[in-house]
Amino acid sequence: MHKPRKEMIAETRAKLIAAARHAFGTTGYAEASMDDFTASAGLTRGALYHHFGDKKGLLQAVIAQIDGEMAARINEVASRAPTRWQHFVDECSTYIEMALEPEIQRIMFRDGPAVLGDPAQWPNCSACIASMTDHLTALQEEGVVVSSLDPETASRLINGASSQAAQRIANSSDPEATSKKVVTAFKQLLEGLLKKPDPQSN
Amino acid sequence: MHKPRKEMIAETRAKLIAAARHAFGTTGYAEASMDDFTASAGLTRGALYHHFGDKKGLLQAVIAQIDGEMAARINEVASRAPTRWQHFVDECSTYIEMALEPEIQRIMFRDGPAVLGDPAQWPNCSACIASMTDHLTALQEEGVVVSSLDPETASRLINGASSQAAQRIANSSDPEATSKKVVTAFKQLLEGLLKKPDPQSN
DNA sequence: CCTATTCACATACGCTTCGTATGCCAATTG
DNA sequence: CAATTGGCATACGAAGCGTATGTGAATAGG
């Protein structure tokens, strides 16, 4: 018995996703020819349509995979941090770091939203956001963060800023210097969420 | 003399841009057929290629037009505001408001970046950002905003958050309620930029 | 062990869309 | 009034996508 059937199927699915991920990440979604990257996986479009319905379906699968990896990495980093606030800041930093990878930028922040619409409406719906939202909620209960704001909303705004931050660093001619400026500005923004020690002003 | 030549040319250019703008804004860039929307303007692709080189060139022209309109509207709102900080906040609010229009969302925030790349690298380069950057710089000199951050960087981060804010409102099932939550969270983030009255903390 | 059925995947076809090359006609120029 | 420019349309070829159909191997049933 060479290989069980199920295993072969899972393998071709994985090969398709991997090939598409590479093509989407480098060439871009619109410019990536289905004939080309299925061939690079030793397959044809027949397999693609069979498993994913169409090109968009395959993109969804690729995005789900990347999203899973990002969430895992964030959870790992998140697990070690002295305070919860630091924990939260670390999550954001990690998010920005990951967004520096061209593949993630292209697929998750550019082509993904363009093809599938607002990421907030995606099925798996960004595991990263969910994690950030949880921590914001906890921080509110602890009195560290102002209680007037909606955690998920705040998470998404921060998420938008993070993505801009990453793009700015990635496209910079001097990533080192830019990175410093961006991270400084970003942390400054986050300060706005903290409850002030003296609430008399304003 | 019916019409001077130059006028006719400008007119066809305008008609093409208007038709494309409508098609891109409703159908979407990728799905908009050049044959279709040029025909809806009483023209053919011949005119399009002659004036704009290709589809992307036309998108650039459309974006330039919209960007100009946005900048004009922002400057107008900006002109009336008691304090400079309020001025700045108003700019942001106006930006979010404009981003609620589906056409702007689609063209400027989704298809535009996907096709032309990071907006920060666009030629006209978002007149809105430039305006915000100017005001942030002034606010720093006045000592209202912390001096440690780079104005343009901060503008872009805020810009990213604004765009998220607008999308969240626009896609909400209850725009009224969502709008309140989003604006609250957004203004809270902006607070982070303000210099604290008592600089001893931190 | 042999037949039947399923199904993963390939092949073949037509349709749409894009980019280029070419042609035509009106408006300018001298 | 002749010549030329250039704005725009038409014609053609190439490529990509989606669907319909075909095929062969693995499973299931007797």
What does this 3D model show about the protein?
Two copies of one chain form a homodimer. Chain A is mainly alpha-helical. Chain A folds into two domains: 53 residues, Orthogonal Bundle (Arc Repressor Mutant, subunit A), CATH 1.10.10; 133 residues, Tetracycline Repressor, domain 2, CATH 1.10.357. Helices cover 71% and strands 0% of the residues of chain A. The longest helix of chain A is centred in the first third of the chain and has 25 residues. Chain A starts with a helix and ends in an 11-residue tail after the last helix. The C terminus of chain A is likely disordered. At the A-B interface, helix 6, helix 8 and helix 9 of A face helix 6, helix 8 and helix 9 of B. Chain A binds a DNA duplex (30 and 30 nucleotides) through helix 1 and helix 3.
The overall pLDDT of chain A, averaged over residues, is 89
- Helix count, DSSP H or I runs of 4 or more residues of chain A: 9
Termini gap of chain A: 75 Å
**CATH class category label of the largest domain in chain A:** Mainly Alpha
CATH architecture of the largest domain in chain A: Orthogonal Bundle
How much helical structure, as a percent, in the residues of chain A? over 70%
How would you spell out the order of helices and strands of chain A? HHHHHHHHH
Oligomer: homodimer
Major β-sheet annotation of chain A: none
The largest interface is:
A-B, 45 and 46 residues
How many separate structural domains of chain A?
2
Structural class of chain A: mainly alpha
Q: CATH H-level name of the largest domain in chain A... which superfamily?
A: Tetracycline Repressor, domain 2
**Poorly predicted segments of chain A:** 198-202
- Rg calculated over all Cα atoms of chain A: 20 Å
> What proportion of the residues of chain A form beta strands (DSSP E)?
under 5%
E-strand count of chain A: 0
Backbone shape of chain A: elongated
